[in-house]
């Protein structure tokens, strides 16, 4: 018997009868496979959509463009038909399908829609040279599906599409390698502005009670986009530029420090500390880059291990304090 139930009984939150029922239920050793089954369904959706992409790529000359587009459109229509038929309609608060499989059917339909629009633009260019529209249209469809069907997975696709529309690539593997923040100041400013807009939308959504459980997703994207854009510009040769982005990173750190406690989100708190630590070290290096430390080199060699060990200890202490405060 877990100590939590015993504490509830001692504090009078549950009766002895309820305690006995919980004890009997625990003794059955029943465990849920809900998370494992959902993960397998998610892998099935990813495998299915990836398989369609491979099928198109390998048989594009034999199947034909019209046939491929028609097949995609039929599958998309069938998926959305079942989703709309079984949905509870749009609601401002958190909702869910009666059957969890339909949530992944929405995800599959949304991914296939992105594939359909991208393939259509690549082959027939219905948007002409306005390639941004080919990104914006599936992004709008994704936002609609995310809010109408209350689907967080689709929301991440929508935010990624929005970032791509303003010239960013926010997938984890290419964020640092493909986004040339250093040489493109406009891209850096766009990244910061996008992050701020995501924060403002989260604040507005909470004010009108619109899908408030989406807030953590918006804030996570905002934290990564603003922090990486700022850190990338801390190495800029222009003094005003790197000082400006140092202030942006400081403001971002302060805001996400407060909001992580408000949302009780350990993920925001951990990444906020990591970005702040990296930015602080770069900032200190820029301040003392013209100072000659040749006479103090031996002292620095001795102090650096202490500094890094102290940083690790401080990091662990901060995480423990965070967990203690949010669970109090």
From TrEMBL:
Domain DUF2157 positions: 7-154
Membrane-crossing residue ranges in chain numbering: 39-57, 63-84, 104-124, 130-149, 154-175, 187-204, 216-234, 240-257, 269-288, 300-319
InterPro entries in alphabetical order: DUF2157
Keywords noted in UniProt: Membrane, Transmembrane, Transmembrane helix
Taxonomy, superkingdom: Bacteria
One protein family per Pfam: DUF2157
Protein name: DUF2157 domain-containing protein
Organism from which the protein derives: Flavobacterium artemisiae
């Amino acid at each position: 018997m877990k100590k939590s139930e015993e504490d509830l009984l001692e504090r009078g939150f549950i009766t002895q009868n309820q305690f006995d029922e919980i004890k009997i239920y625990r003794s059955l050793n029943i465990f849920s496979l809900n998370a494992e089954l959902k993960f397998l369904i998610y892998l099935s959706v990813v495998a299915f959509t990836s398989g369609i992409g491979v099928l198109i790529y390998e048989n594009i000359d034999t199947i034909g463009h019209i046939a491929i587009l028609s097949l995609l459109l039929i599958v998309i229509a069938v998926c959305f038909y079942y989703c709309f038929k079984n949905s509870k309609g749009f609601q401002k608060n958190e909702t869910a399908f009666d059957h969890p499989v339909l949530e992944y059917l929405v995800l599959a339909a949304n991914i296939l829609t992105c594939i359909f629009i991208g393939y259509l633009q690549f082959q027939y260019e219905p948007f002409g040279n306005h390639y941004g529209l080919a990104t914006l249209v599936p992004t709008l469809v994704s936002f609609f599906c995310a809010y109408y069907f209350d689907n967080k997975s689709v929301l991440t696709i929508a935010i990624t599409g929005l970032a791509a529309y303003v010239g960013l690539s926010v997938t984890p593997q290419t964020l640092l390698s493909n986004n040339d923040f250093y040489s493109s100041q406009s891209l850096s400013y766009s990244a910061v502005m996008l992050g701020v807009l995501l924060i403002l939308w989260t604040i507005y959504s909470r004010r009108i009670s619109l899908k408030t459980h989406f807030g953590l997703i918006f804030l996570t994207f905002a934290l990564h986009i603003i922090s990486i854009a700022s850190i990338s510009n801390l190495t800029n040769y222009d003094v005003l530029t790197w000082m400006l982005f140092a202030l942006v990173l400081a403001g971002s750190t302060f805001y996400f420090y407060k909001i992580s406690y408000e949302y009780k989100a350990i993920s925001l708190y951990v990444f906020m500390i990591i970005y702040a630590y990296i930015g602080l070290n770069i900032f200190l290096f820029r301040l003392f880059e013209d100072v000659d430390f040749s006479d103090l080199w031996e002292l620095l060699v001795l102090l650096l291990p202490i500094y890094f060990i102290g940083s690790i200890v401080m990091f662990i202490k901060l995480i423990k304090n965070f967990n203690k405060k949010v669970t109090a």
